[in-house]
TrEMBL record:
The lineage of its organism: Eukaryota, Viridiplantae, Chlorophyta, core chlorophytes, Chlorophyceae. It comes from Raphidocelis subcapitata. One of its GO terms (molecular function) is zinc ion binding. It comes from the Eukaryota. Residues 1-25 form the signal peptide. This is Carboxypeptidase D.
């Protein structure tokens, strides 16, 4: 039927309003490509006529410029299975580069993610060799070694060889501002009682390197993460500090709710390392962070509580800055462990998809591993009584979580759906469990609020190796009992950590905001046009005259 002049005016005005966020989204989408074009040309290297940089990895420590050139070299030869991108810049303006290893790098998939970081302290450079050597091994053995094939084909592996390029160049621990980057993250113990989302935001004194790594850690869901250091040979796991915030060295553990799984992951790395598990100082080659010495504002605890990522710290050399002739030995000591850890973390626990019953639509959900002990019993054991959540991503509903062998109960929550509990039995052979979880819609009574999920997914907010943070590169156990927390704040939670179980759900990618604005504007235009016609709102150029017909809706929508 013919449209009234008032409706045409409404449509014209709403379309004009929609154009603004659409333009913002287009501009935001173009920025990473422009940054990639600007950063894709490596600076001159000092390798001269020495041939391929990959041949130098076990002979010398590559400079920052050589490391970037090596990444470009690897991407070119790795048959579409590698991508390099910048996650941000250092204090002195150097790009902090990352590699993504996968058969479909940069593309969202319902597959697990794992990340390795190294050289957080500038005078601990062994990871600048170990992570490139791991990438070379994966590239050379994909299709030959079943472990390499699985990591490339069925997962997305992210490698950041140097988090602190300025510190490396100056051969010192701290960054160019003199800040220890492993004391620069929001701390779940120090921030206990604050709104839980505070943990996901950089603090005012956050360094550029810290901000870049936080963005990388929040823009996709990681099953686990590991950070390579030097100064000992041990696998360190959370928590790093004590509830009373003391820095006294007590030799006492402060375990997390996921202590059994953290111990399992740390022992796995140590067992596959040539010497770590044989340590006389650290039984089984592992240690709880607080038990060793308390650390606050470290990256490990932040990854675990804020991002829902099972994170451990790997000390891989007793001495810092080992002589270059020791590099082949370092690689042989760590090679098997570097391969086995991500395999176990991504495939040895539980993975699957959360979907809506009936429709099969993917659901972005919050998941927790239920704790069997009563709060009093857990406190007596020294562990927090509140589980730390992890998340399925909205695009596919996919999740992946390391779990120690045994029986576990998962609690699954999502806005608009009934809470579900799922029991999983994780075998000890490393095969893990694949579990599809269906959620039933909430039963609503007349006049009740209808929750609407606004999923912040985009190509940069995905479980399966999405577009990365910063610029891309054109070279491309218990089964019952316990309780769960609710509420939107960390207030009243255990002082061991600020649980994010009900703090607005999973973290959202900042890159998704312009896309959400554009989609929202289109929806607003359609809905507004309907409202103009249905309720008789009349717009006239030169002024507005509003006439409302009918009564208000009988239900409201909560976003």
């Amino acid at each position: 039927m013919a449209l009234s002049s008032g409706l045409w005016a409404c449509l014209w005005l709403l379309a004009a309003a929609a154009a603004v966020p659409c333009a913002v989204a287009q501009e935001a989408a173009a920025q990473p490509k422009a940054a990639a074009d600007a950063g894709s040309k490596p600076r001159a290297t000092s390798s001269g006529g020495s041939g391929r940089l990959s041949d130098q990895l076990l002979k010398t420590y590559l400079s920052n410029e050589e490391l970037v050139a090596w990444m470009t070299e690897l991407v070119a030869k790795c048959s579409g299975n590698a991508r390099k991108f910048s996650i941000g810049e250092s204090t002195n303006g150097a790009n902090i580069w990352a590699l993504e290893i996968s058969d479909r790098p940069g593309e969202p998939e319902a597959e697990p993610n794992f990340k390795y970081l190294a050289n957080m302290h500038g005078d601990e450079p062994s990871g600048r060799m170990l992570l490139p050597m791991l990438a070379e091994w994966l590239c050379a053995n994909n299709g030959k070694d079943p472990r390499a094939t699985r990591l490339v084909r069925d997962a997305h592996l992210f490698l950041v060889p140097t988090m602190n390029p300025d510190g490396f160049a100056a051969r010192r621990r701290n960054n160019a501002n003199g800040v220890d980057l492993n004391r620069n993250f929001p701390d779940p113990i120090l921030l206990a009682g604050e709104p839980a989302d505070v943990l996901r935001r950089p603090q005012d004194d956050a360094e550029p390197e810290t901000r870049a790594v936080m963005a990388l850690g929040l823009e996709r869901r990681y099953a686990a993460s590991a950070n390579l250091h030097e100064g000992a040979v041990v696998a360190n796991y959370p928590f790093d500090g004590y509830p009373d915030r003391s820095s006294d060295v007590r030799g006492e553990r402060n375990p997390t709710p996921d202590d059994a799984t953290f111990v399992w992951l740390a022992k796995l790395y140590a067992a596959h390392h040539k010497t770590m598990a044989k340590s006389e100082e650290f039984p089984d080659g592992i240690v709880n962070g607080a038990q060793w010495y308390p650390v606050y504002s470290g990256m490990q605890d932040w990854n675990y509580v804020a991002a829902g990522t099972m994170a451990i710290t790997l000390e891989v050399s007793d001495n810092k800055w080992r002589p270059a002739q020791d590099l082949p030995t370092l690689w042989e000591e760590n090679r098997e462990a570097l391969v086995e850890l991500p395999l176990a973390a991504m495939f040895g626990g539980v993975r699957g998809n959360v979907t809506a019953a009936g429709s099969g639509a993917p659901v972005g959900a919050t998941l927790l591993v239920k704790i069997s002990a009563t709060p009093a019993a857990a406190a007596a054991a020294g562990a927090s009584a509140l589980p730390v959540p992890f998340y399925s991503e909205p695009r596919f509903g996919f999740f992946s979580r390391p779990l120690a062998p045994g029986r576990h109960t998962l609690v699954v929550r999502a806005l608009g759906y009934e809470e579900a509990e799922v029991v999983v039995d994780v075998p000890s052979d490393g095969s893990g469990v694949v579990k599809g979880i269906e959620l039933l819609p909430e039963q609503l009574s007349p006049g009740s609020l209808v929750p609407v999920i606004v999923a912040g997914s985009s190509d940069d907010d995905s479980s399966g190796g999405s577009g990365g943070g910063g610029s891309g590169d054109d070279s491309s156990g218990s089964d019952s009992g316990g309780s769960s927390s609710s509420g939107g704040s960390a207030a009243g939670l255990s002082t061991h950590h600020a649980s994010l179980a009900a703090a607005g759900g999973p973290p959202k990618s900042r890159a998704a905001l312009p896309i959400l604005l554009a989609h929202g504007a289109v929806f607003a235009a359609i809905a507004g046009a309907w409202a103009c016609q249905r309720f008789g709102w009349i717009a006239a150029i030169g002024g507005y005259r509003v006439r409302r017909l009918g009564s208000p809706p009988t239900s409201r929508f909560e976003v």
